[in-house]
Amino acid sequence: MNAIVALCHFCELHGPRTLFCTEVLHAPLPQGAGSGDSPGQVEQAEEEEGGIQMSSRVRAHSPAEGASTESSSPGPKKSDMCEGCRSLAVGHPGYISHDKETSIKYVSHQHPNHPQLFSIVRQACVRSLSCEVCPGREGPIFFGDEQHGFVFSHTFFIKDSLARGFQRWYSIIAIMMDRIYLINSWPFLLGKIRGIISELQGKALKVFEAEQFGCPQRAQRMNTAFTPFLHQRNGNAARSLTSLTSDDNLWACLHTSFAWLLKACGSRLTEKLLEGAPTEDTLVQMEKLADLEEESESWDNSEAEEEDKAAAEPEGAEGRELPSCPAEPSFLPACGSWQPPKLSVFKSLRHMRQVLGASSFRMLAWHVLMGNQVIWKSRDVNLVHSAFEVLRTMLPVGCVRTIPYSNQYEEAYRCNFLGLSPPVPIPAHVLASEFTVVVEVHTATRSNLHPAGCEDDPSLSKYEFVVTSGSPVAADRVGPTILNKIEAALTNQNLSVDVVDQCLICLKEEWMNKVKVLFKFTKVDSRPKEDTQKLLSVLGASEEDNVKLLKFWMTGLSKTYKSHLMSTVRSPITSELRN
């Protein structure tokens, strides 16, 4: 994560100051940051935790070198710093952690070495401890702008027996240029930074209680109430955080915590490349989910109203007969009691084509793509459901209307996939219709106990499939273009099942884009038939089967897309542009 985490302190003598900061370096370390190339550097400690290797290196500076470093540093001068404003000792280059997984270095020191970063951190420090404060002066707050970065700041107090009010004011800030990323990381940063703060406050509280027990400061200050405050402390106006917490390894621990915070916060959120707007299938699924939620809320409200009415009925109404509820259609109980199968019978379209045979599968697929009603008659409910799950992958989600299993025939306008029990009669006009295809599943005879394609599948070897239609597809019929491409992919044995699935998704998206163009051209713009024929020729869909397919798939467009187009056409700006 490209951010800087810093610990800031409000010094009673010098105002807001940066005590300690950790930054991320993707490039080679800058000079003076402890790169370890100089022979004068001695490695003090090295440990590895969570894939991050931490090391602390100290360089022996000569007085001249120290003077030059101080003059070139963007931080405050030594004369402007007291014990409470300083974290690392003079000459300490800081702490470095090497992330082996990403080759990223986490560097900690008192101030950033880069002048621009120093200015950004300095400004964020001043604002976090002066004007940008939440109510109560303790807690998280967010501020910033595009020029100086965005800041997550959490202010807190540390107990100090020698400070005014027996406490000192600190803040931990996280600075980033990406506002959205920082806001999305708010819950994570809040929880982890609060953990760091609680640990610091706990250590300081123990020291404070020990000091108060040994030498209570409150009574001593009451006796010297008229003595100037700064003079009565005998030079103890500033105390370092290591002194307040009695922890000599405080800065190394803070470096570990800040480095882990930057690494964990950067890895918990990942960016995904979206190639465009949500697909029609996604929009339709979202609309169906919203409709289900509204329906459940309406049912809850109606049940509550009925309970209120029943409670308000007079006593004389006990002997009355309540009106009976209308009988539900017979397929609803069947759907309610139906359970999804544990194992799919048909594994893929290629598997179904092998079981049914090439000619029967082509006839079935043609009716599916055209939007005709597909009826499966079988006693095996799992088989029917598996067949519908495989066949529906050829259609957009909005074009699928399924009744998995019913005890009576349902009209085509209610569903285009219908599962029936073998004894259920189908009307004669439906069987003779060219808009219906029936797949009957019979028990295989001994002579045909292992149909083609079922030798390795015992669940299908006991069945034989008969596909009939009032208008069988001729073998020499060209058919829709997408059907020919699907068959070409299924027959290509070099393509795996996963590749065929991705190919099918691409084909559906290609033809749904053509449907969108045709819908806007005909339904929204109301162009004449001559222009529509030219458009179909340009789209490569001028054949009769392709036109029927486009018209059927047009019913699968989402309400969101249709309303968006209609609102765009009706807007005054669009009409002015057309005129």
From TrEMBL:
Residues 32-81, 294-324 are annotated as: Disordered. This is Folliculin. Residues 294-308 have a biased composition (Acidic residues). Residues 309-321 have a biased composition (Basic and acidic residues). It is found in: Cell projection, Cilium; Cytoplasm, Cytoskeleton, Microtubule organizing center, Centrosome; Cytoplasm, Cytoskeleton, Spindle; Cytoplasm, Cytosol. Keywords: Cell projection, Cytoplasm, Cytoskeleton, GTPase activation, Lysosome, Membrane, Nucleus. Residues 86-558 form the UDENN FLCN/SMCR8-type domain. It holds the Pfam family Folliculin_C. Its main location: other. Belongs to the folliculin family. It comes from the Eukaryota. InterPro entries: FLCN/SMCR8_DENN, FLCN_DENN_C_sf, Folliculin, Folliculin/SMCR8_longin, Folliculin_DENN.
